[in-house]
Amino acid sequence: MFDSALNILSYLSQGLGTTVSLFLAATLLAFIIAFVAGLCRIVKNPLIRGFTMFYVELFRGTSLIVQLFWLYYAIPILFNIHLGSNWWIGVIAIALNYGAYMSEVVRSSILAVDKGQTEAAIALNLSRVQRMRHIILPQALRLMLPEFGNYSIQILKGTALVSLIGLTDILYYGDIYRSTNLSEGPLAYFMVLVMYFIIALPLIWLSKKGEKIAKRGVAG
Amino acid sequence: MWSWETFADAFPIIITGITVTLGLTITSYALALAAGFIWLALESTPLKIFNFIVYWIREFIRSTPPIVQIFFLYFAWPMVPYIGTSFTPFVAAMLALGIHFSTYIAEVYRSGIESVDKGQWEAAKALNFSQKDTWLKVVLPQALPPTIPMLGNYLIILFKEVPLAATIGVVGILSLARSYGANTWSYIEPLTIVAILFLVLSYPSALLIRQLEKKMNRRFDKKNMKVKVTE
User: Fold this and answer.
1) Least CB–CB distance from A58: residue in B161, B188, B199
2) Most buried residue, A8, A130, A138, B160, by CB count within 10 Å?
3) Which among A73, A160, A184 is the nearest to B188, CB-wise?
4) What domains sit in chain B, N to C, each tagged with a CATH number?
5) Which domain holds residue A97?
6) For residue range B99-113, what is the model confidence (pLDDT) as tens digits?
């Protein structure tokens, strides 16, 4: 039992690179999208605001698996570009989806910073950009931390879908293992879950840490 | 390329899957609501070590991908010695999604219960309420209403996870769209229809929940979710 568990783990680890690289790339891109879209939601220009809101509601309103399939089939046909690999489609789909969710975190955290801070910054003659960079964002960032931690776990869970578009991640190797060793199926999928959990552990720790930092506030 | 004829052709076929998609949403949500209480009960026994183990089991389920859990229940559960039985795709998906989301629902319940003022417990004790009455007549009526918007949000999130069941052959809208694509080699139109259906159902519900949230925030103090006394 223990031997075959280790055996399965080493077999599954072939997919570890795909899962982890996809997770890191999608998380990075999702963060960038979240900040850009989050800031676009609070600019004065109604066109930018409207367009960003459309993007956010579109990707929050449909589900990741549908978006993944849609992009997988549509990108090559509609835009006539071949990204070269499905890895990019996975990264883009996951980042667009979670970027939309996380942009709401960015937006609401910025709005949650006390109005007095903005007023004080205006009184000190700081420009709009300076206000955002030196006064509002450093305080808003703390508020974002716990939610960002949670979403990083969601992103990790979301990466498990990419085996559906042919990427060889952990779940892909789990499926292969099960189909060749049917009786070991339960153990195979259990080890897949264990592997995801091991990757998730530092993220769980980070989001708990983030919660503490957010609670402490700026003065602490 | 995009073709409206394909769109019109696929639409009536795909829409028939909506009953299965919504059925799966509702049944797994009901399971999640019920199982959420079970987690809380299991995590507050007098046996500390037991609570600790249950907590980590819940954390394990919560932070691993639901699609793997669906595969586990559908493909692997029948092979589990002694207790293994085979489920239909619908039941496997319902159990997996229901249990996965119950781990979140439990957290919502907990936040609601923790928001009830300590004085309420003490008052119930002083008035000699039984354990059952304390929960049913004092704590839960105050703890649950503020959680309704959060519970509603999880219903919408769950709805968007339901198409995962297509991977084990539950014939919902995504499944029908993919088989339509496989037969005709046009995937974009059917998948767009699926996206539209999700958007049409989830966006108004999301707006409704946001409205409800605002209403609740007016009635309840949001900061520590304390219930305000109304005259």
Assistant:
1) B199
2) A8
3) A73
4) 4-227 (1.10.3720.10)
5) 2-216
6) 999 999 999 999 999
